[in-house]
Amino acid sequence: MTIEQAQQPLVFIVSGPSGSGKSTLVLKMLEVPGTMFSISYTTRPPRTTERPGKWYDFVSEDEFQRMVREGEFLEYACVFGKHWYGTPRRWLHEAQRKGLDLVLEIDVQGAEQVKKKLPAAVAIFILPPAKEELERRLRGRGQDSEEAIQRRLKRAEQEIQRYTEYDFLVVNDEVERAGSEVQAITVAARCLRSCLSEHARKILESFGG
């Protein structure tokens, strides 16, 4: 039996354009007890503010392709035709072992792959309040060239067109309110009949359900 066929932890997919504030909202979700974060692998170099093992582990392209060949990823994709990103399958095993729900911060390509493998995964799309605000946030980070900013804005338009593929849409115009919404989604999803906890299943079985 594969990990996809076995009893699963609840998996949350969080996607949104670069600059939408999805990382901040993921941190809000991780404040909910019983959740854990899936650290991604990437071939891009770390930024000056990043350290390995927090949001990403940084590897060479040769190492990344070895992991692809050996089936170590739940999903992976090449972003902007330049750098590779992937979600290690081991985090799904780890969440299952610990009895925790798993939070993935991945792009729309990765989200599509995960939903095909794990249809019960709960997908949340983070929407910026306006195109102008998104551009302001990207420029305010001071991390990208003008070319990179324009590329990110173009990609944002493409990604936002796919919001209908997600279960929930959260507008991140005010971080406290948006944070409360993603936390509410996290808690509510645990009560979905399609995502029954093992504890709930045992209770139902005791009543002959």
Molecular structure report:
The chain is an alpha/beta fold and 209 residues long. The protein has a domain at 11-38 and 100-206: P-loop containing nucleotide triphosphate hydrolases (Rossmann fold). The protein contains eight helices and nine strands. The chain has helices at residues 22-30, 61-69, 90-98, 108-117, 131-141, 146-160, 175-189, 198-206, and strands at residues 11-15, 35-37, 40-42, 56-58, 73-79, 83-88, 101-105, 122-127, 168-171. The strands form two sheets. The protein has a five-stranded parallel beta sheet with strand order 2-7-1-8-9, with helices on both faces. A four-stranded mixed beta sheet has the order 4-3-6-5.
Quote the average pLDDT.
89
Radius of gyration: 18 Å
Task: Output the CATH homologous superfamily of the domain at 11-38 and 100-206.
Answer: P-loop containing nucleotide triphosphate hydrolases
The proportion of strand residues reads 15-25%
Total count of strands? 9
> Roughly how much helix do the residues carry, as a percent range?
40-55%
Q: What is the CATH architecture annotation of the domain at 11-38 and 100-206?
A: 3-Layer(aba) Sandwich
Ranges where pLDDT stays below 50 over 5 or more residues in a row are: 1-6
Helix and strand run: EHEEEHEEHEHEHHEHH
Shape: globular
Question: How large is the count of helical segments?
Answer: 8
Category from helices, strands and their pairing: alpha/beta
Q: How far from one another are the termini?
A: 25 Å
The CATH class of the domain at 11-38 and 100-206, by name, is Alpha Beta
**The CATH topology of the domain at 11-38 and 100-206:** Rossmann fold
How would a crystallographer describe the biggest sheet? Answer: 5 strands, parallel
Strand order of the largest sheet: 2-7-1-8-9
